[in-house]
Design goal:
Layout: H1 7-13, H2 17-32, E1 38-40, H3 45-67, H4 70-91, E2 95-97
Antiparallel strand pairs: 1-2
Helix pairs in contact: 3-4
């Protein structure tokens, strides 16, 4: 979510935030699968859709904080609840199972 909130920074680096985020997930999965028998299936459409919904909600929360007012105070209560519900749904998405390596020594993958 934060990567999308800093477009000038990522543009200066020549990075597209969503692509950068997916690369971080890939590297994290490569490291994690050396010690955990399950990893996130972040390439699943439901996972990516959940991330996008969380991003949109995060932007709406920032807008509500910036604009103020009674209606935006209500939004500042309701929107985090919506984000929590999406996060819980994502928590129960199917994962990828795999065998652990014979040698569980962590090795950098980048």
């Amino acid at each position: 979510m934060r990567d999308h909130a800093r477009p000038v920074f990522h543009e200066a680096l020549g990075l597209e935030p969503a692509a950068y985020d997916m690369e971080v997930f890939r590297v994290t999965r490569e490291i994690s699968q050396q010690v955990f028998p399950v990893t996130l299936d972040f390439e699943a459409p439901a996972f990516r859709a959940g991330l996008e919904r969380l991003r949109v909600i995060a932007e709406a929360i920032d807008t509500a904080k910036r604009e103020g007012g009674v209606l935006n105070r209500v939004r500042r209560v309701v929107l985090p609840l919506a984000a929590a519900a999406i996060f819980v749904r994502m928590f129960f998405l199917p994962t990828r199972s795999h065998a652990l390596p014979q040698n569980p020594r962590l090795e950098p993958v980048w």
